[in-house]
Design brief:
Blueprint: E1 10-12, H1 16-27, E2 38-40, H2 42-51, E3 56-59, H3 63-68, E4 75-76, H4 79-84, E5 97-100, H5 108-118, E6 124-127, H6 130-136, E7 154-155, H7 157-166, E8 170-174, H8 178-183, E9 184-186, E10 190-191, H9 197-200, E11 209-213, H10 220-229, E12 233-237, H11 240-248
């Protein structure tokens, strides 16, 4: 793993429009085709959990996000982990599995469900509209390891571009998945996917000012608060890689 060079130019090989298309493809089928999993609402999930105390319900966000806030009694298993190693799921492929995400628009639950269906699991469910639907139904949440919210400054793409040229202490940390990083990233950025950041954050040097990047800027605040708690000096890119790409395209 190489750290940021002084000559940091943009290398973008997948435009935002294509990323959006892939997101839709990951989360569903065309409208006329049935989804390969069952979509359930929050009351249905609550009833399933009440009737089956061993029901497996997976929060498909990172461990950091999941332990900070999740549906009570559910398990943390990031969609990237499922896609890489589906044997993390139970051996019984007829067992009920439920996947949910942090936001109504999040597609990670669909990715986890898709990996399970592809592996031959027959009783796969996705919570419609994810965690927000659970909250809106008036059901409680659970915190296992609360992350104190820090004061994480954000920087816009154009300002970051200038800072990269002027400051030698910056280290760009790309929190996206390995595949997203390979498809296109800011040159010099190092890849520490958020789904495993809690396990390898200590590999990040502490003598640099970190600038966190994700897809659209939504996940860097909690990740930044986590790293600040660990003693790092952190900033985040406002709007994430989407904003960076738009700047590079002159939008």
């Amino acid at each position: 793993m190489s750290f940021m060079s002084r000559n940091t130019l943009t290398r973008l090989v997948m435009p935002a429009a294509l990323m959006f298309t892939l997101t839709l493809a990951a989360c569903g089928k065309p409208a006329e085709a049935p989804l390969p999993w069952k979509v359930i609402d929050a009351p249905t999930l609550r009833a399933m959990m009440a009737s089956d105390k061993d029901l497996l319900v997976f929060n498909t966000m990172s461990e950091i996000e999941c332990l900070d806030h999740r549906i009570p009694g559910t398990k943390c298993l990031a969609c990237e982990e499922i896609e890489k190693n589906v044997t993390l799921l139970p051996a019984d492929k007829n067992r009920d599995l439920v996947f949910y995400c942090e936001s109504a628009q999040c597609y990670r639950s669909c990715r986890g469900a898709g990996a399970a269906v592809k592996a031959g699991y027959t009783q796969v469910h996705v919570l419609d509209r994810g965690m927000p639907a659970w909250k809106q139904a008036g059901y409680s949440m659970e915190t296992v390891e609360r992350i104190p919210r820090g004061s994480i400054p954000s920087v816009r793409a154009a300002d970051l571009s200038r800072m990269i040229a002027e400051r030698k202490d910056l280290l760009l940390v790309d929190l996206r998945s390995e595949s997203s990083y390979r498809e296109g990233h800011v040159e010099g950025a190092v890849n520490f996917p958020l789904y495993r950041l809690s396990r390898n954050y200590a590999e990040i040097p502490m003598d640099r000012t970190l600038v966190l990047l994700d897809d659209r800027g939504f996940r860097t605040f909690l990740a930044g608060s986590y790293l600040e708690m660990k003693g790092y000096k952190v900033m985040r890119l406002f709007g994430g890689m989407q904003a960076w790409q738009e700047m590079a395209a002159g939008k």
